[in-house]
Write a structure and sequence with these properties.
single chain, alpha/beta, Carbamate kinase, two-stranded antiparallel sheet, 9 helices, binds guanosine-5'-triphosphate
């Protein structure tokens, strides 16, 4: 991997599906997707290798009525297909900006995108391409956060950078509580024992085992990702302390 003078050479950006719906109640808001693509391009232009894992809450909300009472495996399969929709949309937005992008899916759908192949994904990133991981781990019962931590571990990423609606991790929901206090730094154990809902416990444990720091920043802030990959701006970092 080519070395940069930046704190992280290779990062995985985790974006929730909800972020992609912008002001809408579900689906994809094109101006938000385009803005996030611009933010990713800024980080790529700095020389950082970027891969992306996305969720599907924005698609799943639109079908949640139908998913009521459905068995978990089927509902999770629907969620994984939702991730593929989000991944293709992000790929299109990035390629419109001239950023080479490859989508690799954890479930084979060769007519639509590449299958997930670890060594090929690493090669793409070495060539400066953004790799978007679709369809989660390819298995039900695993969240998109766990898929993000798994792929970040497989890709030897230097950090998982999680873009959320708020600028870090707080002791309680800052959207609901004005007196919520933000943490600058936490250990993986703090997150698990305080049940801080940064990522699910499986994802946190994977990051901990593989010693990959998790940075939480606000993806709603334009240019926030470029700052996050340089360890600048507002964020909370989770590591071994
Ligand atoms: P290099 O080997 O580094 O040149 O990478 P590359 O991705 O440019 O080469 P490759 O020939 O593997 O891919 C060319 C194009 O086909 C790229 O846009 C890939 O994303 C796409 N591609 C490769 N494999 C598959 C696949 O199994 N399914 C789909 N749908 N597209 C694929």
């Amino acid at each position: 991997m080519a070395k940069t003078n930046l704190p992280f050479n290779r990062v995985l950006l985790k974006i929730s599906g909800e972020v992609l719906m912008g002001q809408q109640e579900f689906g994809l808001e094109s101006k938000t997707v385009q803005r996030i693509a611009r933010d990713v391009k800024e980080a790529v232009d700095l020389g950082v290798q970027v891969c992306i894992a996305v969720g599907a809450g924005n698609i799943f909300r639109g079908v949640s009525g139908a998913a009521d009472g459905m068995d978990r495996t089927t509902a999770d399969h629907m969620g994984m297909l939702g991730i593929v929709i989000n991944a293709l949309c992000l790929q299109n937005a990035l390629e419109n900006l001239g950023v080479d992008t490859r989508v690799q899916s954890g479930i084979q759908m060769n007519q639509i995108c590449e299958p997930y192949i670890r060594r090929k994904a690493i090669r793409h990133m070495d060539k400066g391409r953004v790799v978007i991981f679709a369809a989660g781990t390819g298995n039900p019962y695993f969240t998109s956060d766990t898929a993000a931590a798994l792929r970040a571990s497989e890709m030897n990423c230097d950090a998982i950078i999680k873009g959320t609606k708020v600028d870090g991790i707080y002791d309680k929901d800052p959207m609901k509580h004005k007196d919520a206090v933000k943490f600058d730094r936490l250990s993986y154990m703090d997150v698990l024992t305080k049940d801080l809902k940064v990522m699910d416990a499986t994802a946190i444990s994977l990051a901990r085992e593989n010693n990959i720091p998790i940075m939480v920043f606000s993806i709603k802030e334009e240019g926030g990702f470029k700052h996050a990959v340089q360890k600048q701006g507002k964020f909370t970092i989770v590591d071994n302390g």
